[in-house]
Amino acid sequence: MFSLSNVSGRAIAVAGLVLLVAFAFLGMRGLWEPDEGRYTNVALMMLDRGDWLTPMRNDLTGHWTKPPMTYWLIAASVWAFGAEAWAARLPIALAFVVCAACVAWIARNCAPGREAKAALVFATMLAPFLAAQLVTTDFPLAAAEAVAMACYAQARFGAVRWRCNAWLGMWAAFAIAFLVKGPPGLLPLLAV
To answer: HSE-up of 50 (CA within 13 Å, CB side)?
Structure first.
């Protein structure tokens, strides 16, 4: 059973840093063209049209270059919090937090006692920090793949009682990765 008495001060500090890095700068600038504007525009079109299955750039032009999951995440965030740049970036920042948590989870199975250090190293690397502030499909893909690999590490190296659930979680996460980016979402299966 999980209790706060088992959580070290270092883990709490790392979690605070991860949250700060993820959320502190979401509304500091407008959306950059072409990627942030395009992905957000497609999500806004889904909201305006009420059609969550057909990604459209405008009323006449479809946008079939990516599967719809990222657009759904952005549209849901904008629907919940309003048409703001930070709301469009919120799912990406949440994906950053998921990735950091998965890095810690993998470390728990592969290098016990180094969970906080692993998450700290990930959260302070420049590329993840920058990518967490951009509306693209990259971080939702990374988050789905990180969950898949964390479930794999749990199934392979973790407690036996969670093995079946971990395998199911891995395949569900790969299905989500496929909905985010298509076939590239399945590339970590080559390592598995």
So the answer is: 0
Cα atoms found within 13 Å of the Cα of residue 71, Cβ hemisphere only = 27
pTM of the model: 0.89
pLDDT at 2: 46
Strand, helix or coil at 62?
strand
Q: Tokens in use for 192?
A: 């598995």
Report yes or no: 39 and 65 within 8 Å, Cβ to Cβ.
no
- The type of residue at 170 is M
Closest CA to 30 of 92, 82, 89: 89
Residue with tokens 């070290």: 8
SS3 content of the chain, % helix, strand, coil (to 5): 70, 0, 30
Calculate the alpha carbon distances from 152 to 30, 108, 149 in Å: 38, 13, 5
Q: What is the identity of the amino acid at 53?
A: L
Of the CA atoms within 13 Å of residue 105, those in its CB half-sphere come to 21
